[in-house]
Amino acid sequence: MPRKKSSRKKSARKSSRKSKGGRKKSGARKKSRRKYGPKASRKVERSMHEMKRGKLRSGRSGKKVSSRKQAIAIGLSEARAEGAKVPRKRRSRKKT
User: For the whole model, what pTM was predicted?
Assistant: First the structure.
């Protein structure tokens, strides 16, 4: 049995309403941008190179860095200091 078409007119709504959830619908995605700039990439690459050759040392203590994660953190920190496009550091939670 065929359906009846509704005779109500659709009102034109503004699409500038803010969503409460903070998530966007999958249909209306915009292009993602780079989180890290090319300068940051070069700094991390350089610090990894130094770490692999045993030349990378940590800041205060001057100990040799052996951790891959630590080498990346040092590279990003140096890039941040030089004003490269790098996201801000995550804040640590306060211990209770």
Answer: 0.60
